[in-house]
Amino acid sequence: MAFHLRPLLRTSPGLLKDPFAVDLGVEFLHGVVDTPVMELAFRQMLVGIDAAERESLEALTRTPIDYGALAGLPAATFGGAYSRFLSTHGFDPEFHVKVYPDCIEDLERNWIYARFARLHDLHHVLLGVGVSPQEEIAMQLFLLVNSRDPVAAVFTMGLPYLVARYRKPRRIWAESRKLLKAARALPNLFRFPYETVMDEPLVDVRARVGLPVGGCAGW
To answer: What digits encode the pLDDT tens for the residues 86-101?
Structure first.
């Protein structure tokens, strides 16, 4: 069992202060991602898929995304919207690798974990969800219900703390209500081949999975 105690001890105090700190979260996960429990938890996200779909998802995940090419796509395409989402919020999709290089081996060894790391911001764009703490809390509930995300399960267990930490419980409830509705209505988005629809209109991609034109805001 590959369990690394030091990253857990080093990051836990910081994560209590800021549960959404990506750099600390990546280091924390490095401490547990290779344990049998976490390996099983990630594998169960793909329960029910056949071998062909599994192989296709793994191939997509192991193929790097050309972020420069996305920046050149029209804003109305899914890939263009994703690129602008990243630039608007100052997000670097490779931030976790740069701040904690030890995670590179984790990602190469476990493609399901690598897909988990890749998809979060893509979910935001498809669903039309912002990045405030209240919306991030709601997103974790979506991921737990929609795709049985094990990291989202941990966040959900800390929901009372998160509500007290970030306040605005009415907004958390409003955002969560929309996203829980979406989680039940939509297919498992962990299995959605985002990489193949980058040049398609965002509204068409949303329609393909059953979302209104404006994403979850339309609910």
So the answer is: 999 999 999 989 999 9
Go through the chain and tell me how many residues it has.
Answer: 219
| Closest among 91, 144, 156, 155 to 122, alpha carbons compared | 91
Structure tokens at 135: 């919306």
Name 77's bridge partners.
201
What is the residue extent of each domain of the chain? Answer: 5-208
Give the single-character DSSP code of 154.
H
Instruction: Give the distance from CA 64 to its chain's centroid.
Output: 17
For residue 169 the two structure tokens come to 């419980």
Q: Indicate the angle between helix axes 150-157 and 36-43, nearest 10 degrees.
A: 110
Give the integer Cα–Cα distance in Å for 215 and 219: 8
201, 125 contact by CB (below 8 A)? no
Q: What is the pTM of this model?
A: 0.94
